[in-house]
């Protein structure tokens, strides 16, 4: 365990209103940012990254970034700052990390103890466990990668359109003038994701915003093309590791 770890790892939380902008800035420390609820959109080195609950953004030291809150309600956001001496344990470029439920609970406990002014050996131990969790978190390039490819970009716009969520992926691909095989190959080349996985993530982003706005699970399940609420709940939990009701109660 690193001695005086509280001098090398800092945990803070912030609250953002819809459309609130954080102006471009950078830090000498590494930043790991993630949402306890709501969605933030980042612009990092000319690229757009989305940070929904359960997926955070790792920013190496001196990485300029700006963000905007997308959620209709207040977004509760966490920033974990990592001293440059510890950044060797993480990627040298921006990455998206998956947030496990244990890590979320751990951050809640750290913030509560910090608010109470508790900096005991137990607090230092929590920070060490937090670092261990971040080191082993699954890593992705983007949560919902984008492309400017002339053939793929209009298709992604369709796949992310809530009014078309009731249509199957096969139906949308059949409407295209390009062969399904070619489109699937392009998606792997440009997005490093299958089109079905990309669309599922787009649905999750939409579902999160709608749940936070109070839409019922039954209505949302229908909008997303599910005949039964239970099927939608299973889908949502597979991607977020929580039910719609648990997300609403955060």
From TrEMBL:
Entry keywords, A to Z: DNA-binding, Transcription, Transcription regulation
Domain of life: Bacteria
Claim: Transcription regulation is one of the keywords in the record: yes
Matches recorded under PROSITE patterns: HTH_ARAC_FAMILY_1, HTH_ARAC_FAMILY_2
HTH araC/xylS-type domain span: 149-250
InterPro entries hit by this protein: Homeodomain-like_sf, HTH_AraC, HTH_AraC-typ_CS, RmlC_Cupin_sf
Coiled coil start-end: none
SUPFAM superfamilies tied to this protein: Homeodomain-like, RmlC-like cupins
Protein known as: AraC family transcriptional regulator
Annotated organism of origin: Acinetobacter terrestris
Lineage, uppermost ranks: Bacteria, Pseudomonadati, Pseudomonadota, Gammaproteobacteria, Moraxellales
């Amino acid at each position: 365990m690193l001695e005086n770890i509280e001098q090398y790892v800092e945990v803070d939380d912030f609250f953002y209103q819809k459309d609130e902008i954080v102006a471009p800035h950078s830090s000498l420390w590494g930043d790991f940012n993630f949402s306890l609820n709501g969605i933030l959109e980042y612009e990092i080195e000319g690229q757009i990254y989305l940070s929904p609950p359960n997926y955070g953004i790792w920013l190496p030291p001196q990485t300029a970034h700006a963000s905007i809150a997308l959620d209709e309600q207040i977004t509760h956001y966490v920033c974990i700052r990592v001293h440059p001496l510890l950044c060797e344990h993480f990627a040298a470029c921006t990455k998206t990390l998956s947030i496990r439920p244990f890590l979320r609970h751990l951050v809640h406990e750290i913030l509560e103890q910090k608010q109470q002014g508790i900096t005991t050996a137990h607090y230092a131990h929590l920070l060490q466990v937090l670092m261990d969790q971040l080191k082993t978190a699954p890593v992705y390039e983007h949560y919902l990668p984008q492309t400017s490819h002339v053939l793929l970009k209009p298709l992604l716009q369709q796949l992310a359109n809530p009014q078309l969520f009731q249509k199957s992926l096969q139906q949308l691909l059949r409407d295209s003038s390009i062969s399904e095989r070619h489109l699937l190959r392009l998606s792997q080349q440009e997005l490093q994701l299958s089109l079905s996985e990309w669309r599922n993530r787009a649905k999750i982003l939409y579902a999160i915003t709608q749940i936070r706005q109070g839409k019922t699970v039954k209505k949302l399940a229908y909008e997303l093309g599910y005949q039964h609420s239970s099927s939608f709940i299973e889908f949502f939990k597979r991607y977020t590791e929580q039910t719609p009701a648990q997300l609403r109660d955060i």
